[in-house]
Amino acid sequence: MGVSNNSFSKEIQNSTLSMPPAPKVKNKLAIGFYVLLTVFLVAIIFLAYRNYQLKQQLQQKQDITSIPVITPTESKIGSIPVIIYGEEIKHEETFNRRWPTYRLIRKVGDNEPEELVEVGKVGEFPADFVLSPDKKFLLVNFENKLKLLDLETKQLEQLIELEKSNYRGAIFSPDGSQLFIWDQNYVEPEAEREYFVHVFNLKDRTGKIINRGSRDYSLFPLSWRDDDKVVMLEPRGGGPAGLFYYDLKTNELQSVPGREWVGPASKNGRLMGEANSSIGDACNAYSGNAVGSFEIFDPVSGEQFGRVGDDSKVVSIVAFSPDNREIIYTIAALITSPATDEGIEEFFDKCSEQYEKQEKNKLYYRKVISSNQMGVLLEEPQKILASWDAFTVEAKAKWDNYIYSISIGGKVIISSDKPLYMVAQYYQ
Question: What residue numbers bound the domain in which 38 lies?
Fold first, then answer.
């Protein structure tokens, strides 16, 4: 018996209508599969990124911990803090100037302070002090003459009388055998601007003028590098400072363009910080700002190596490692501006209180300069500073309620009713 095409078509239609909607089920399964696959892939990517972060953090710690921290018993440098400070014992007034006399005093660890020598009188202003690389001598700059204090014998010897006058014009060579001297009056630009460049040999006590000329601003030498380039700063009376270096091989002064708000330099002159961001600070009478981050660079080539700080807190550079790979710096929350209607003197008195609070709350970090990661928090920064032979023990001098004091790590070690000034600090 035959079946008509029409009835067969109806049967097919009825059969089709009575079946579950298979294509829709497949679509839901496909969507679910893709959702699960997407979640899985996102999880894989997240885990991979998190693993990368952990590896970076681990590498940061390994970079730091791979350099052995020299303990006090192992260190050839030592870990006993030594501070040399000046106590103003008297002064004389002339028609245009105040001439102080300082008693230089050395304190080694917990020992009683030891008097070294008295410096300063009318015509001899003790403007600057520079510790020799071997820590055996202290150069005293009297602006128009230089004297050398033997820290063992306590003898003060005059080395050279200068042609002009510069209160921060001399620096030791890396081996301590020579002095580089920039000899120029630090006065206003319209005054006479002649300068002389000296190199003084400490072995035979002979010196020579290697260059002379004229320029608007005096220069302050910061570091004499082992490539015979002397890093120098040009202060400009309240504005940004110019950065220069003197090349002793070519006997030429070179400028480093684009670097003005520069900060501390490493002891060997290979690294320097430049303020990269600022935070408004009403208590800063000089600029009205605090530094929020530093860019670390080579002060001769200008090459950038890294950055410290997060732009939201006050950052300060403490020291660079001898191999130029690492840095110790501090982070502190910005103080709030003290509100007072009592006058400018009361305002800055309250600023002093808040700066002291900021100093107590700052944290020390150690960081590989080239790393993008945050530094490692240090519980005992003094141990690292000692192993690095840093010329700092983080001693601070302050004045509070007519009492002068010097403290290390917040602990007062010296107090006096006479003005106190930091001269040098290091580990023995």
Answer: 27-66
